[in-house]
From TrEMBL:
<dbReference type="GO" id="GO:0046872">
    <property type="term" value="F:metal ion binding"/>
</dbReference>
<dbReference type="GO" id="GO:0008441">
    <property type="term" value="F:3'(2'),5'-bisphosphate nucleotidase activity"/>
</dbReference>
<dbReference type="InterPro" id="IPR000760">
    <property type="entry name" value="Inositol_monophosphatase-like"/>
</dbReference>
<dbReference type="GO" id="GO:0000103">
    <property type="term" value="P:sulfate assimilation"/>
</dbReference>
<feature type="binding site">
    <location>
        <position position="208"/>
    </location>
    <ligand>
        <name>Mg(2+)</name>
    </ligand>
</feature>
<dbReference type="GO" id="GO:0046854">
    <property type="term" value="P:phosphatidylinositol phosphate biosynthetic process"/>
</dbReference>
<dbReference type="Pfam" id="PF00459">
    <property type="entry name" value="Inositol_P"/>
</dbReference>
<feature type="binding site">
    <location>
        <position position="206"/>
    </location>
    <ligand>
        <name>Mg(2+)</name>
    </ligand>
</feature>
<feature type="binding site">
    <location>
        <position position="358"/>
    </location>
    <ligand>
        <name>Mg(2+)</name>
    </ligand>
</feature>
<comment type="similarity">
    <text>Belongs to the inositol monophosphatase superfamily.</text>
</comment>
<dbReference type="InterPro" id="IPR006239">
    <property type="entry name" value="DPNP"/>
</dbReference>
<dbReference type="InterPro" id="IPR020550">
    <property type="entry name" value="Inositol_monophosphatase_CS"/>
</dbReference>
<protein>
    <recommendedName>
        <fullName>3'(2'),5'-bisphosphate nucleotidase</fullName>
        <ecNumber>3.1.3.7</ecNumber>
    </recommendedName>
</protein>
<dbReference type="InterPro" id="IPR051090">
    <property type="entry name" value="Inositol_monoP_superfamily"/>
</dbReference>
<feature type="binding site">
    <location>
        <position position="144"/>
    </location>
    <ligand>
        <name>Mg(2+)</name>
    </ligand>
</feature>
<keyword id="KW-0479">Metal-binding</keyword>
<keyword id="KW-0378">Hydrolase</keyword>
Length: 424
């Protein structure tokens, strides 16, 4: 595994710098680096045999990019290609970490939720690739992680581990002639501090959505979207543990062998799925059933993230017969978008504030696949208000045929729940 091959970052950097000629700035494919002067140190490694040995012949990030997509003619085609490349590279780092995660790779945030070296590493790689590939306009990103905990005394070891992981992931991909210093690592994480909002363009990133699933060895997603004037215009969901074909039974497993799905959607161009290692994109659409008896529904694996009693009551009122399919993360939106199930229900406990990065990519993948995503009252989600989605009800998603009866069942179940006296 690359992260364990014993190539410490300093040595890698020193060897590359010693052997390589300085690149001509005109040939560098990443002028946005100029915007972040402390971001990175780069080199041309074409003559470096040691590094070449670390690289695979055809990096999947590059291959995923070369496949023709329905969105090729859209005004966001370049951004979509960059987003796929960024998510694919981040997914590779996450897979490396998930396979051999250690206790010291996991920390607890101020809100007690877990964060891992892979959450940070994924955010760094996505920021870096977007900066390198998208050369027009200024760069703004609303992302989940920040570097505060990594700047504290005692964080030196974890910062070094993240730096090594990121640089080893970059070194394995022939399309990147770049390494990051520790200052560059911290700057890359903090490039996600934008507040978003209704004007301009903002990338929206959850570097690992479903960290608990990631730690359990279950589902997780790298979720990246682009907001333009307050609207989500593209989304990419990397789901390294999701079967590529479909989830065709209630345990979330599949009949096909291939695992690792990359969902993408651009406004007005539909939604697609391809393998994380670069198969051609296939158009997807939500299931077309109008009979709840044939419908199955997705919800969070974690009981603390959604009220399973309320969702059970909604499903019963609707006439759904199958038990819930419980999986972590926005992988649920991807699975819904290709028709693995018909409904997604999410009802967090009172007081939880939804963040835009937890829904932006998933929502456009579902709507472009022909589905609808609304709050519990049937309103569209509004991603233009900053880092949070201002809603105090739940989020529901399904096809157009089932939405009216689903909304009715949701309203009835909520009303009934509100009438039950609190045990306190
Ligand atoms: N108490 C909570 N209630 C609802 N969602 C939560 C809560 N804590 C974390 N989450 C978020 O729920 C999402 C996982 O969704 P799901 O439950 O559908 O798998 C993640 O974005 C996770 O945040 P994070 O991204 O920090 O892991
Ligand atoms: Mg999340």
């Amino acid at each position: 595994m690359a992260a364990r091959v014993g190539l410490p970052q300093q040595a890698l950097l020193a060897s590359a710098l010693a052997r390589s000629p300085s690149p001509s700035p005109a040939r560098l494919p990443y002028p946005p680096l100029l915007r972040l002067p402390t971001y990175c140190r780069f080199f041309s490694a074409s003559a470096d045999a040691g590094l070449q040995n670390l690289r695979r012949r055809l990096p999947f990030a590059a291959r995923a990019m070369s496949q023709r997509s329905e969105a090729a003619g859209s005004p966001y085609a370049a951004e979509l290609a960059a987003a796929k490349k960024a998510v694919s590279l981040a997914a590779r780092l996450c897979q490396t970490v998930q396979q051999e995660i250690e206790q010291s790779d996991v920390q607890s945030k101020a809100d007690k939720s877990p964060v891992t070296v892979a959450d940070y590493g994924s955010q760094i790689l996505v920021s870096l690739v977007l900066n390198m590939e998208v050369t027009t306009g200024s760069f703004s990103m609303v992302a989940e992680e920040d570097s505060e905990d990594l700047r504290k005394d005692g964080a030196e070891e974890i910062l070094e581990r993240i730096t090594d992981l990121v640089n080893e992931t970059l070194a394995e991909d022939a399309s990147f002639n770049i390494l990051l210093s520790q200052e560059g690592i911290l700057a890359a994480i903090d490039s996600g501090k934008s507040e978003g909002g209704p004007s301009g363009r903002h990338w929206v990133l959850d570097p690992i959505d479903g960290t608990k699933g990631f730690l359990r060895g279950g589902q997780y997603a790298i979720a990246l979207a682009l907001l333009d004037e307050g609207k989500v215009v593209l989304g990419v969901l990397g789901c390294p543990n999701l079967p590529l074909s479909s989830i065709n039974n209630l345990n979330g497993s599949s009949s096909g062998d291939q695992v690792g799905a990359l969902f993408s959607a651009t406004i007005g161009c539909g939604a697609e799925v391809q393998s994380l290692d670069g198969s051609p994109p296939q158009k997807i659409s939500v299931c077309s059933t109008d009979n709840p008896v044939n419908a199955s529904f997705f919800e969070s694996y974690e009981g603390a993230h959604t009220m399973h009693d309320l969702t059970g009551s909604i499903a019963e009122k609707l006439g759904v017969q199958a038990p819930p399919v419980r999986i972590d993360s926005q992988a649920k939106y991807g699975a819904l978008a290709r028709g693995d199930g018909a409904i997604y229900l999410r009802f967090p406990y009172k007081g939880y504030r939804e963040k835009i990065w937890d829904h932006a990519a998933g929502a456009i993948v579902v709507t472009e696949a022909g589905g609808l995503v609304t709050d519990a009252s049937g309103n569209d989600l509004d991603f233009s208000k900053g880092r949070f989605l201002d809603l105090d009800t739940g989020i529901i998603a399904t096809n157009k045929q089932l939405m009216p009866s689903l909304l009715k069942a949701v309203q009835e179940a909520i009303k009934e729940k509100d009438q039950v006296p609190s045990p306190l």
